[in-house]
């Protein structure tokens, strides 16, 4: 078989670590501060995806956005109650 050049980056350990950090920031955005940890989770997830951890990096970024939005809705409901 001929070796076909691959356009995808191979996954590195740094990519997996950043993806895990993105999921941790998503949980922290849900529990503590949605703005700061939500943004940090999105950044960590996107960088992890760009470095090669494709599906999980994007999932971490999306989880950070969803957690931040849910946390903001809960906080605003508690304040306006």
Structural commentary:
- The structure is a single chain.
- The chain has helices at 13-31, 34-50, 54-79.
- By secondary structure, the chain is mainly alpha-helical.
- The protein is built from three helices and no strands.
- The relative contact order is 0.19.
- It is elongated.
What is the compact description of this entry?
It contains three helices and no strands. The chain is mostly helical and 81 residues long.
Write the layout of secondary structure elements.
Elements: H1 13-31, H2 34-50, H3 54-79
Order of helices and strands: HHH
N- and C-termini, Cα separation: 67 Å
Strand content: under 5%
Biggest sheet character: none
Uncertain runs are none
The strand count comes to 0
Q: What structural category characterises the helix and strand content? A: mainly alpha
Helix count, DSSP H or I runs of 4 or more residues: 3
Rounded average pLDDT = 91
Approximate shape: elongated
Helical content (DSSP H or I, runs of 4+): over 70%
Keywords:
single chain, 81 residues, 0% strand
């Amino acid at each position: 078989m001929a070796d076909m050049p691959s356009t995808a980056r191979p996954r590195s350990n740094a990519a997996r670590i950043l993806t895990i950090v993105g999921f941790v920031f998503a949980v922290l955005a849900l529990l503590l501060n949605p703005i700061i940890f939500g943004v940090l989770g999105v950044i960590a997830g996107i960088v992890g995806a760009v470095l090669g951890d494709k599906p999980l990096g994007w999932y971490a970024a999306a989880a950070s956005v969803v957690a931040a939005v849910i946390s903001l809705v809960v906080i605003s409901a508690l304040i306006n109650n």
